[in-house]
Design goal:
The chain is mainly beta and 152 residues long. It has one domain. Helices cover 0% and strands 57% of the residues. Strands 1-5-6-7-8-12 form a 6-stranded antiparallel beta sheet, with no helix packed on it. A 4-stranded antiparallel beta sheet has the order 9-10-11-13, with no helix packed on it. It has a 3-stranded antiparallel beta sheet with strand order 2-3-4, with no helix packed on it. A hairpin with a 4-residue loop joins strand 5 and strand 6. The radius of gyration is 15 Å and the shape is globular. The two termini are 28 Å apart.
Length: 152
């Protein structure tokens, strides 16, 4: 895995009181046809030739959430995970990437870790994720999200 700068966004829909802004994904300036929730691309990580993890935020002061989108340039959006809670502020920072993990800081004194699988794995809704993580109530997932307390 590696961080890449070839991904960019063009906003196609403004945020409303009940929905996030939506943006078109571009690779090397070419429109992909993939629309993701979010307005600001914090980082993009290439997992393999066709899979990318995008970290997106909205331009909302004092109530930030992070959208993590796994996209496949051939098949579209594979999975979307949201990190955040109401009235919670967060700042995406300290991105580090290893061969099989993406680590970052966002909310609280935690190191957040994302691991990506090429094939879907079993997920137990409401029990599988750390506090503050939201996703569709399906029984499959491609991305594992975990947290680890950071020592001061």
């Amino acid at each position: 895995m590696q961080q890449v700068n070839s991904i960019s966004l063009i906003k196609v829909q403004e945020a409303t009181e009940i929905s996030q802004a939506r943006s078109a994904v571009l690779i090397n300036g070419n429109i992909t046809g993939i629309i993701v929730p979010g307005e600001i691309l914090e980082a993009s990580v290439q997992v393999n030739e066709q899979l990318y993890v995008l970290f997106l935020t909205d331009d909302v002061i004092f109530e930030e959430s992070l959208t993590i989108a796994l996209i496949d340039f051939r098949e579209g959006i594979k999975e979307i995970v949201y990190v955040g809670n109401e009235y919670t502020t967060g700042s995406f920072e300290a991105l580090s990437i290893t061969a099989d993990k993406i680590n970052f800081r966002f909310i609280g004194d935690y190191l957040w870790t994302v691991t990506v699988s090429d094939t879907p794995r079993l997920r137990v809704p409401f029990l599988s994720d750390p506090r503050g993580v939201k996703r569709d109530t399906t029984f499959k997932k491609y991305m594992d999200i975990s947290t680890h307390t950071v020592s001061a």
